[in-house]
Design goal:
The chain is an alpha/beta fold. The chain has 13 helices and twelve strands. The strands form three sheets. Strands 2-8-7-6-5-3-4 form a seven-stranded mixed β-sheet, sandwiched between helices. A three-stranded antiparallel β-sheet has the order 9-12-11. Strands 1-10 form a two-stranded parallel ribbon. α3 runs parallel beside α10, α4 crosses α9 and α6 runs parallel beside α7. It is globular, with a radius of gyration of 21 Å. 50% of the residues are buried. It catalyses: L-aspartate + 2-oxoglutarate = oxaloacetate + L-glutamate. Its EC number is 2.6.1.-. InterPro entries: Aminotransferase_I/II_large (IPR004839), AspAT/PAT-like (IPR050596), NHTrfase_class1_PyrdxlP-BS (IPR004838), PyrdxlP-dep_Trfase (IPR015424), PyrdxlP-dep_Trfase_major (IPR015421), PyrdxlP-dep_Trfase_small (IPR015422).
Length: 400
């Protein structure tokens, strides 16, 4: 009898974490490595949020809390959705988890049965398909290439829906591409979903506040109120508030679904960290002015990286609407040989050779469901990005 579960054969470790780990190991060994794999802001958590956590500790708020969030935080989340998205929720419709990933995972575990299909636009965040598989469902990738700016069309969504479809996972702005759907583009997808009342919508809005220029963020339940009763709107404090390590995510949806997610959480992690919940409460209710300041920094970095990567031989890098990623196409590099003698047969080989020959760590596109590409996270200092892109340019210039 095998000791390990058969479930493990259906999933794989996160490639983004693997790249970050490998880069850290090389750096610890004395190598000159620039890691562009982690989707983590380099900004420190704002001081008022850290102070709120300290006050919570001093006040003894270090005990168990309600399984899916303290009442004060749930109320603040309701206020946030009304203030920023025009969506009305009650605390009974809110769940708080240990990071955004757990809320997504809880929802899938609470709803997926064998044979249930989950539509996932590709390129996708690496965890979506594996979470679906862990929950017993079947991921159905729908590929959107560079020709449609990495955004699926209503016709593609319509064609992917079957009687077995349970969820449509929507992520805008996107990890890994930074692509953001306009109101008109999202309207088209919502019109399709209105025709298929058995399909639920899981909207991952984690990069809501990281949008650039005149792009306006929007979310499905806001665009189409008729979808409200079958939409789980997910968010968190990790990216916008530079709180990745605090591990607080949240979601809003129908009461029955929220209760089911709470049941899953009650038998897995139980409540999120009490201190982190009070920090998140301050994040959502405290000063918000730094969000615009950080957004300007990320926009400047985006423009720097896009410009420098488009100047690299064989690379085409679209300009994303948001998040802090770019997803360059390297079709013209496939089949070439590096200065170190490596034949670039695919984007994983490209990323490996880039790391070994230049010390720049990126994540290969196959991990996100679309090749040949790679993902760069530009959530780091300008000078670091400039040096990394210069190395990529030099690497590409030597390909023959």
């Amino acid at each position: 009898m095998p000791f390990l579960s058969d479930t493990l054969a259906r999933v794989k470790p996160s490639p983004t974490i693997a790249v970050t780990t490998k880069a850290a190991q090389l750096k610890a060994a004395g190598k000159d490595v620039i890691g562009l794999g982690a989707g983590e802001p380099d900004f420190d958590t704002p001081q008022n949020i850290k102070d709120a956590a300290k006050r919570a500790i001093d006040a003894g708020r270090t005990k168990y809390t309600a399984v899916d969030g303290i009442p004060e935080l749930k109320a603040a989340i309701c206020a946030k959705f009304l203030r920023e998205n025009g969506l009305t929720y009650t605390p009974a419709q809110i769940t708080v988890g240990t990071g955004g990933k757990q809320t997504l995972y809880n929802a899938l575990m609470a709803t997926c049965n064998p044979g249930d299909e989950v539509i996932i636009p590709a390129p996708y965040w690496v965890s979506y398909p594996d979470m679906v598989l862990l929950a017993g469902g079947t991921p159905v990738p729908v590929v959107a290439g560079i020709d449609t700016a990495f955004k699926i069309t209503p016709a593609q969504l319509e064609a992917a829906i079957t009687p077995k479809t349970k969820w449509f996972i929507f992520n805008s702005p996107s990890n890994p591409t930074g692509a953001g759907y306009t109101r008109e583009e999202l309207r088209g997808l919502c019109d399709v979903l209105l025709r298929h009342p058995h399909v639920w919508i899981m909207s991952d809005d984690m990069y809501e506040h990281l949008v650039f220029g005149d792009f306006e963020f929007c979310t499905p339940a806001e665009i189409e109120p008729a979808l409200y009763d079958r939409t789980l709107t997910c968010n968190g404090v990790s990216k916008s508030y530079a709180m990745t390590g605090w591990r607080i995510g949240y979601a809003a949806g129908p009461v029955a679904l929220i209760k089911a997610m709470g049941t899953i959480q009650s038998q897995s992690t139980s409540n999120p960290c009490s201190v982190s919940q009070y920090a998140a409460l301050e994040a959502l209710t405290g000063p918000q002015d730094f969000l615009a300041e950080n957004r300007k920094v990320f926009e400047r970095r985006r423009d720097l990286v896009v410009s420098m990567l488009n100047a690299a031989k064989g690379i085409t890098c679209p300009t994303p609407e948001g998040a802090f990623y770019v997803y360059p196409d390297i079709s013209a590099c496939i089949g070439k040989v590096t200065a170190g003698g490596t034949l670039i047969s695919n984007d994983e080989v490209f990323a490996t050779a880039l790391l070994e020959e230049t010390g720049v760590a990126v994540v290969f596109g196959a991990a996100f469901g679309l090749s040949p590409n790679f993902r760069v996270s530009y959530a780091t200092a300008d000078e670091v990005l400039r040096e990394a892109c210069s190395r990529i340019q030099a690497f590409c210039a030597t390909l023959t």
